[in-house]
Amino acid sequence: MTNNSIRLDHVVLWVADPVAAAGFYQEAVGLEPVRVTEFAEGKAAFPSVRVNEETLLDLAPLAFAERMTMLTGAADRAGHPVNHLCLSLSADAFDALRTRLEERGVPMSDIGHDSFGARGNAPRSFYFHDPDGNVLEARHYTD
pLDDT tens across 41-52, in order? Predict the structure, then answer.
């Protein structure tokens, strides 16, 4: 592994309803909501969900896209989705996530095998999307 001090701090996802999105990520995916009450009260610009102690998914309202003026051309690119983001879980958490998504009727891909990622080949992975169409991959590695 590369010994690098750079860490992924956050990924911003564009969502139609940040509170509903936070609910999906909490209930279906199992991530901890952050600043949802503050957002609902108008005290925070957007809520987030915590992936781990170092990484958040920020749930930005689509209306923010026009406010992306911090860099020339940013407003024209804001709102364009990424291909997908991948969550790495333990094998048990992987199975539990798939069960929660099935219980909620969330469409999922079949389970794939031996897909390459940051920690080598993952024995199992699958894809699903959130209510706003953001595509996520779930995987686990053999530890």
Answer: 999 999 999 999
Neighbour order of strands in the sheet with 124-129: 85-89, 135-140, 124-129
Helix, strand, coil fractions of the chain, as percent rounded to 5: 30, 30, 40
CATH number of 1-80: 3.30.720.120
Which pTM was predicted? Answer: 0.84
Question: Looking at domain 83-143, which of 1.25.40.10, 3.30.420.10, 3.10.180.10, 3.40.50.300 is its CATH number?
Answer: 3.10.180.10
Classify burial at 72, counting beta carbons within 10 Å of its beta carbon; exposed 0-12, middle 13-18, buried 19 or more. Answer: exposed
